[in-house]
Amino acid sequence: MKRYLVIALSTALLSAPALSPVSALADNTASTAINSQSSTISNKTQVPEFKNVSVHDPSVIKVDDTYYVFGSHLQVAKSKDLISWDSVASGVTDDNPVVPNVTKEFAEALQWAQTDTLWAADVIQLADGKFYMYYNACKGDSPRSALGVAVADNIEGPYKDQGLLLKSGMWDEISEDGTIYDATKHPNVVDPDVFFDKDGKLWMVYGSYSGGIFILEMDETTGKPLPNQGYGKKLTGGNHSRIEAPYMLYSPETDYYYLYLSYGGLAADGGYNIRVARSKTPDGPFYDAEGNDMIKVMADKDKPLFDDESIEPYGVKLLGNYLFERQIGDPGTGQGTGYVSPGHNSAYYDEETGKHFLIFHSRFPNRGEEHEVRVHEMHMNSEGWPVVSPYRYAGMESDSVQVTEQRAAGSYKWVNHGKDITAEIKSSQIVQFAANGQVTGAVTGTWSLLEDNKVRITSNNVVYEGVFTQEWDAESQQNVLTFSALSSSGVAVWGSQMNAMKDQDVVQAVKKDLTIGNTENIFYDLSLPTTGTRDSQITWKSSLPSVLSADGAVNRPRSGKGDAKVKLTATIRKGSATASKTFQVTVPEQAAGPLLGEYTFDNKKLAKIAQDFSKNGYHGQSFNVVSSAISTKNQAAAFNGKNSYIQLPGLLTDTTDFTFSAWVNWDGGGAWQRIFDFGNGLTRHMFLTPSQHNGALQFTIHDQGRDQSLIATEALPTNQWVHVAVTLQGDTGTLYVNGKSVVSSSEITFNPKDLQASEAYLGKSRYAADPFYQGKMDQVRVYDKALSAKEIQLQAEIKP
């Protein structure tokens, strides 16, 4: 349980790279190859069955044989094995079983913070056997927050409020310490972690941005702060530095308290990363690996808010944005294994299994803001700092392995996490560990295997101390040998060993894996790969370079010339081995006229086909959409709000300037429904929603990790026919309702052509959590130019 955190790290934890089981595993097996440079140890590897869950800011507690994580927005999940998770509750609504009638139960906190949601919760069990939930609410755009405690007899609730403990953000008023609140010095009272020290004394560490991270002495009987402490003692941060989410764990092996922190911003473009500092006492002082006193770490008050440069050199950075890049020809599918903005962690030592765990949420490369809980095992290096195993914990049952120089020698995917706070993803590079102790490739230096599978790596006079472990790589579906190590300046490096391959095997693997995607309608420039696994080279040749060049540039035939058929041939080389692969590509002719697509929905086959009445024949496919009579001569498309949508060709977005025009009759309902959503995956898209979370009509185009939006002052009217249009011309975007401009911006620099759209939906979002559109549409038109205000007005005058 999360009670007395007395940790006894066993020798086995430090020396054995094998992962011991903590639960039942899947019955199916996967055979994996064995060779001198592969870390596979068994031909009968049990494959773990991961079941993911979304809990932001997960704080862990174990009750009997079950792990629970409590997070923001009253999200709770549980697991028997830290691998397969089930949701228990989600949402600050009065039907949440964990806190029934939460809007009334926590009304004081919600009202003070002027919000309708809750932030990161933390739960601990005290000596009375009851469970104490430390909840908090924050306004979000300021440190106006409230932190309270609720109690339950059962871990899953129901929790009853015991009142507020702290408040913050009371501008120009007396704060908890008797002085006028100052956000640069006083904390934002969120992100609590309540813990027992090695002597059984209760503490609470908390804080986010603004004045920094603070610690309070707590009453072990009531679970509330001891009197006359104000906000407590400051540990680090201040001047609105982006340091938050403190979590404390004590190790009796080193006799240190480890303070985990998250630096940066939590969004996909925020550069969130996990760091740690340590102290001999729970209330500090805390130091990083270079001996820097963390109390001195804060943003430069003379710089703008959230100055990262002042704080990024400090703290031991355990992990940030990274990608073990899967190259063409590598085992598995997809882009590889990686995280974006991992952070707000908790940590746990399981006495039953003798394992140290890091539990956090993360976003992922090319998945936008979607996030899930991840659990990684940790080990202590020779300097007494935790190093995080590169792959998620899989609970694999495998034989214990004693690493030898011969076994450890080979090629590795190498990631250096650095010390910066950045949205950049640190992609892996290839290095070779030779049996004679030399390191070559992207990094040069030396390596040596020490006792208990520990490793020392030296490069550019920097020494990294770490450990070899064996882990499960879900991407390649095999066990791999990995290392995780830290430098004396607090920089983490990770390595994942690659299977040895002969040159001929390399080119054949690349040939088998090589793809350029859908080749039927290529209307945008292709990014043709030039390298494959193991530094293999790929060159290209086109049968019609005037239409599709060897470097992927596309020049569509003029309208009336017909579609072009192009043969694109790749030649793969590795050493003296070669192979070739040919793709048949269709490049469609240019559109006829500025009207790209026109959908009036008057055809009788709407249940299957959304017919394009323009000259281009860009017909769409209809899913569960039915015809709805407007008059005896006119039909509209009716969307049920459950599973109906229309998919149009991505060719509709092959334009720089753009107009979308339609008549819509929206039934109302949940936020973020889509009138249209055109794009490619979760990283490049544009959409129009009748109402977003603040109740406003919104158009957004998203690219390069940024949104550019047109947001009206109110939602689209319901239960009536309304004409709506979006135009893009140069850097100017305009949103129209019933022929009148409701918002315009000269900062819409993205354009539809750059989206390289592979999906173009009417009535459906590319985000699975968003509701389907409910209502009707008619006279949908898409243009490769921006219609004038007068042209939009004329269309709005002709009602369906």
Automatic annotation (TrEMBL):
Pathway: Glycan metabolism; L-arabinan degradation. Gene3D superfamilies: 2.40.128.10, 2.60.120.200, 2.60.40.1080, Glycosyl hydrolase domain, family 43 (2.115.10.20). Pfam families: aBig_2, GH43_C, Glyco_hydro_43, Laminin_G_3. It comes from the Bacteria. SMART domains: LamGL. Residues 656-790 form the LamG-like jellyroll fold domain. Residues 1-26 form the signal peptide. Keywords: Disulfide bond, Glycosidase, Hydrolase, Signal. Belongs to the glycosyl hydrolase 43 family. This is LamG-like jellyroll fold domain-containing protein. It comes from Paenibacillus illinoisensis. The lineage of its organism: Bacteria, Bacillati, Bacillota, Bacilli, Bacillales.
